[in-house]
Amino acid sequence: MPVVYVNIFLAFIVSLVGLLIYRSHLMSSLLCLEGMMLSLFVMLTVTVLNNHFTLANMAPIILLVFAACEAALGLSLLVMVSNTYGTDYVQNLNLLQC
Amino acid sequence: MNLFTSSIIMTLLMLTMPIILTSASTHKNKSYPQYVKTTVSYAFMISTIPMVMFLYSGQEVIISNWHWMTIQTLKLTLSFKLDYFSVIFMPVALFVTWSIMEFSIWYMHTDLNINHFFKYLLMFLITMMILVTANNLLQLFIGWEGVGIMSFLLIGWWYGRADANTAALQAVLYNRIGDVGFIMAMAWFLLNTNAWDFQQIFAIEHENLNIPLAGLLLAATGKSAQFGLHPWLPSAMEGPTPVSALLHSSTMVVAGVFLLIRFYPLMEHNKTIQTATLCLGAMTTLFTAACALTQNDIKKIIAFSTSSQLGLMIVTIGINQPHLAFLHICTHAFFKAMLFMCSGSIIHSLNDEQDIRKMGGLFKALPLTTTALIIGVLALTGMPFLTGFYSKDLIIETANTSYTNAWALLTTLVATSMTAAYSTRIVFFVLLGQPRFNPVIIINENNPLLINSIKRLLLGSIFAGYLIFHNITPTTIPQMTMPCYLKMMALAVTMLGFILALELNSTTQTLKLDYPQNPFKFSIQLGYFPIIIHRLLPMMSLSMSQKMASMLLDMTWLENVLPKSISYFQMKSSITVSNQKGLIKLYFLSFMITLILSFFVLNFHE
């Protein structure tokens, strides 16, 4: 296995840890989510290009599309929380009410 | 014979002259009220000729003028029946109307539409005459509806006032309910006797007359404000005082009683309807007398007094004494119209004050009105040898000695004592004591129009009973012998009412303020009858229609069944099922620890 995969895999792990461990801002976990998506994109592109996996040439672009959608979703949730509370502190979300 | 018929025709035609001459614009003349008044006075004088002819020769006339149309087998004509009832009632009604018109020249003097007012009064009088002299049911119905319409127009005379419009509408609606009974009776007579003429109806022997007589009883209930259809009469006091004096005391409200009196040959043999009439009349007289005990508006007290006397007339019909009821109609017209005119004089002098709690001390200030009021009150309660005595005492005596319903008799006696009680109340609050009105008014009764009209009715209240009673032909034999206590019963009950009321009224001067108790509240709110009937039924129908139209169809079926119910259900179930508390960081941390643990466990297992 080429060493570059280890590098990209490490980037993914770093972003994952950053997603799961954060202090107060919801925005930082969303950014780490983007980081995860980015590393996945790079890994997928490198794999497809190195192995001449021609039929999977579309896969990175599709991944990007879905990443964009989920980023938009996450941002809209952040904006809704921020509209209600003024900040995006995650400790505000301790009150679930329907 | 010629004198009889020509006098009657001249009387009736003279009354229509001021109306027909509208095209010659006499009604824009300033002295049109005087013209109408003198017309009515001349009509009265001419109509006494047939009355005297009838009293001294017993001559009855039927004038059958004009054949209008024949509808298959029904012949409709214009015919006048001038028998005992109509020939005596016409002069009485015309006399009272003459006095009231003279009074209303004074009362409505500052009204710009006084000519219009007199035209309405005259039209009312004409339709009342049509009703009284009708020989067939169609003509009677024309007169019946005519007095109803004129009552509506006259009650709502001051139409800028919302209460007056409501009262006029109430009068029309309640009268309409009675008209249903009238039309039912007309239809029954058309189907079963093929005629609307009284002669033919009375000549045929019928088997079961319950339906038409019940219809006529319903019509009398509506027109004469018996219990169940009574609220319009106290509300009709929104009209001017001359209207109250003419329509709602002497003439229009007796139309229902007059109808029942006309049909006495049919009612003589029908015990069911007589019992129903008796109970209805007894109920009415007691209820309205109880309501009159606590009213504070002088016109409403007199209106309830009218209603109570009408109940007494209906009771008289119920014990099969139509001629006594008719006598009471004639005598009652005099003193009741006079009572209303006195109240009009008081109201006008006190600058339109109608509340008796704000009157007082008028004994020395308005001497003639005071005299007339006291004599009217005494005549109303049946003081021996005044007018009311000849009819009222006879009625009570006959009721006491006849084989009748004991409850009805008892209620009539109680109502008689209540009559004395509320009459004492009027006298006490209006005339006696210290004045409670504004000091800065001019109390003046010095107008010849007012004085002459009240004096005329005053003489009538004192002497008319004697004159009428001793000149009419005896129709039913009055009960001559009865135990002493029964003979004295009416007088004793009246004295009891007087004394009790006087005591109570005197002691109210020295009481502390007490909150009203339930019987008081019952009496002053008219037995809760108008409140329940006028508001409950419309509220129920309107709220039911609102619920059906907007809530059932729109809200429920279109809005709530699928869309809102789905969202509501989802929300409720998610609240029930979810038990999270929103500790996101903790959840993420546990996720990460799980990942690390799994990494270690799965990689270093060996």
UniProtKB/TrEMBL annotation, chain B:
Catalytic activity: a ubiquinone + NADH + 5 H(+)(in) = a ubiquinol + NAD(+) + 4 H(+)(out)
InterPro entries assigned: NADH_DH_su5_C, NADHpl_OxRdtase_5_subgr, ND/Mrp_TM, NU5C-like, Proton_antipo_N
Limits of the NADH-Ubiquinone oxidoreductase (complex I) chain 5 N-terminal domain: 68-118
GO biological process, one term: electron transport coupled proton transport
Predominant cellular place of this UniProt entry's protein: mitochondrion
Bilayer topology annotation: Multi-pass membrane protein
Molecular function, one GO term: NADH dehydrogenase (ubiquinone) activity
Enzyme Commission number(s) of this protein: 7.1.1.2
GO-annotated cellular components: mitochondrial inner membrane
Record domain NADH dehydrogenase subunit 5 C-terminal: where: 422-601
Location relative to the cell: Mitochondrion inner membrane
Protein family according to the UniProt entry: Belongs to the complex I subunit 5 family.
Protein name as annotated: NADH-ubiquinone oxidoreductase chain 5
Organism: Ursus maritimus
Chain's gene name: ND5
